[in-house]
């Protein structure tokens, strides 16, 4: 059950009204597919509100509390707005009149919505701080691909990153099957943290395992590599059953700032039964970028002139970690640039015996391609959105070209079978001026990219007045007059 989503992290500049009032609501929302032990599917929605962004009022006990109203909608397809699936009030714990108490305050809520129809749904929500005198509304929207499920079919839930997994005492909103499973709702970013904890569920392993047991193999890789990190692997033996929960953890204080994938694989008699993957981001300020490599490696393996080296460093930011980007921007001398360049590509070797130039040559091939195919009137190809996406995510599996549409701007839809842990990902580029051939990114459903739910309507601005744009019907992703190309360069 794969979730295709754009997780919204909304953080807006604070504007203090009083010592216990903030102006804008800061929150995370995420959603995951699960089944209950009887096999009925449900969507688990996680909400995390930062208490420091709440408005508070004094209650009868003389303490202060905040309240957030949440409306959740789960819709299938495009059409009329359905009635809200759920309306809830999230109430903060009581606090005293101190700023310090608010800094560590969070409201965490877990809601489970039954799934009645499979397929792609739109999960939307509206949050309102009930103590906000202006009653601002904060909205989010992303897609989830729901599977109807079956009580007798083998399956694996989505992978949760959790803060707590332990036997339950007092029942809480996040309690499940006798355990407290407190989700970690923070955009999958682990900054200066010591441990990665995860949780998932297995359904009907007794239907596919030949014997009475199977093995669960967990491991971590860098996002740009399939090589398992040697110290980040674990395997346990499990007994086949109709329903089971699984939790594990890895110490991550020694991981450098980078993008990683957590993999969970099920095996029986050496055969891979099924697997799940989830991406996460490590920002580790305790480990600095190594810029002290042997300078002879650069002279021997690369040896670029200063201008050529600088030309490579700029597009390398598309595949660099944030720590590497910050370090790159601090480079001043030529020697520092050469050492950083060498260390950057040494770290991206898949196997110890690979040439240091192997990963760089693959990057350079992409760079040459985008500079040749996606250059604009006044910009090299790597500076355009299409060039950036090609370098960052690789070549799409399929491209739909819309070049002769009478009512729409020329545009391209790049489709990827998979981007990280997201399946069926898409990027929409369009040409609003028809002169410079820049094709800026109009919309993508990849997390962290520009998500524009109105992208189809934006394409029709070519022939539709802004005043009438909301009355314009949407266009399907594909239609007549298009040219498709499988693009597996």
Description:
The chain has 489 residues and is of the alpha+beta class. It has 4 domains: 1-149, Immunoglobulins (Immunoglobulin-like), CATH 2.60.40; 152-286, Immunoglobulin-like, CATH 2.60.40; 295-373; 386-485, no CATH class. It is built from 8 helices and 26 strands. It has helices at residues 99-103, 295-301, 306-316, 322-329, 334-346, 357-373, 385-393, 455-459, and strands at residues 9-10, 27-35, 41-50, 57-58, 64-65, 67-76, 86-91, 106-114, 119-129, 137-146, 155-156, 160-167, 175-176, 179-183, 189-191, 195-203, 213-222, 228-239, 243-251, 258-268, 271-283, 398-402, 411-419, 422-430, 441-444, 483-485. The strands form 6 sheets. Strands 11, 12, 13, 14, 16 and 19 form a 6-stranded antiparallel β-sheet that branches. A 5-stranded mixed β-sheet has the order 15-21-20-17-18, with no helix packed on it. Strand 9 (119-129) and strand 10 form a beta hairpin. Helix 6 runs antiparallel to helix 7. The longest helix has 17 residues, at 357-373. 28% of the residues are buried. The model is unreliable at 1-22 and 467-489 (pLDDT under 50).
CATH topology of the largest domain: Immunoglobulin-like
The proportion of residues forming helix, as a percent range, comes to 10-25%
Alpha-beta classification: alpha+beta
**Beta fraction of the residues?**
35-45%
Shape category: globular
Number of helices: 8
The count of strands amounts to 26
The domain tally reads 4
What is the H level of CATH, i.e. the homologous superfamily of the largest domain?
Answer: Immunoglobulins
Main sheet, how many strands, which sense, barrel?
Answer: 6 strands, antiparallel
Low-confidence regions: 1-22, 467-489
What is the CATH-assigned architecture of the largest domain?
A: Sandwich
Rg to the nearest angstrom?
Answer: 25 Å
Cα separation of the termini = 29 Å
CATH class of the largest domain: Mainly Beta
Instruction: Indicate the mean pLDDT.
Output: 82
């Amino acid at each position: 059950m794969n979730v295709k989503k754009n997780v919204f992290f909304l953080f807006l500049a604070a504007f203090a009204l009083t010592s216990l009032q903030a102006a804008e609501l800061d929150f995370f929302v995420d959603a995951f597919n699960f089944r209950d032990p009887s096999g009925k599917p449900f969507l688990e929605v996680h909400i995390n509100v930062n208490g420091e962004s709440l408005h508070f009022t004094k209650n009868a006990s003389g303490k202060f509390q905040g309240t957030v109203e949440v409306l959740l909608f789960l819709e299938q397809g495009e059409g009329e707005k359905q009635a809200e699936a759920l309306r809830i009030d999230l109430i903060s714990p009581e606090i005293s009149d101190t700023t310090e108490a608010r800094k560590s305050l969070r409201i965490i809520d877990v809601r489970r919505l039954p799934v009645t129809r499979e397929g792609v749904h739109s999960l939307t929500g509206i949050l309102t701080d009930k103590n906000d005198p202006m009653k601002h509304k904060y909205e989010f929207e992303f897609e989830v691909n729901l599977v109807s499920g079956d009580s007798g079919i083998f399956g694996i839930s989505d992978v949760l990153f959790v803060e707590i997994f332990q036997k339950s005492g007092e029942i809480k909103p996040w309690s499940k099957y006798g355990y407290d499973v407190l989700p970690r709702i923070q955009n999958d970013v682990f900054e200066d943290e010591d441990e990665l904890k995860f949780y998932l569920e297995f359904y009907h392993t007794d239907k596919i395992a030949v014997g009475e047991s199977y093995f669960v193999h967990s491991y971590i890789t860098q996002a740009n590599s399939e090589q398992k990190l040697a110290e980040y692997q674990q395997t346990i033996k499990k007994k086949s059953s109709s329903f089971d929960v699984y939790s594990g953890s890895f110490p991550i204080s020694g991981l450098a700032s980078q993008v990683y994938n957590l993999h969970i694989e099920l095996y029986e008699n050496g055969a891979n039964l099924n697997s799940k993957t989830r991406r996460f981001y490590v920002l580790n300020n305790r480990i600095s970028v190594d810029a002290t490599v042997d300078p002879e490696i650069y002279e021997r393996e690369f040896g670029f002139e200063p201008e050529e080296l600088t030309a490579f460093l700029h597009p390398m930011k598309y595949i660099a970690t944030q720590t590497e980007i910050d370090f790159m921007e601090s480079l001043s001398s030529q020697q520092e640039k050469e050492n950083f360049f060498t260390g950057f590509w040494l770290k991206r070797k898949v196997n110890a015996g690979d040439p240091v130039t192997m990963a760089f040559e693959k990057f350079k091939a992409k760079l040459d391609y985008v500079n040749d195919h996606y250059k604009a009137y006044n910009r090299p190809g790597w500076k355009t959105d299409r060039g950036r996406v090609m370098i960052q995510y690789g070549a799409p599996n399929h491209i739909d070209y819309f070049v002769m549409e009478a009512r729409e701007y020329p545009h391209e839809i790049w489709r990827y079978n998979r981007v990280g842990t997201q399946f069926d990902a898409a990027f929409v580029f369009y040409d609003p001026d028809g002169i410079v051939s820049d094709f800026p990114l109009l919309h993508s459903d990849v997390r962290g990219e520009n998500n524009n739910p109105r992208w189809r309507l934006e394409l029709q601005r070519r022939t539709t007045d802004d005043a009438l744009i909301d009355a314009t019907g949407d266009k399907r992703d594909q239609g007549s007059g298009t040219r498709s190309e499988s693009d597996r360069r």
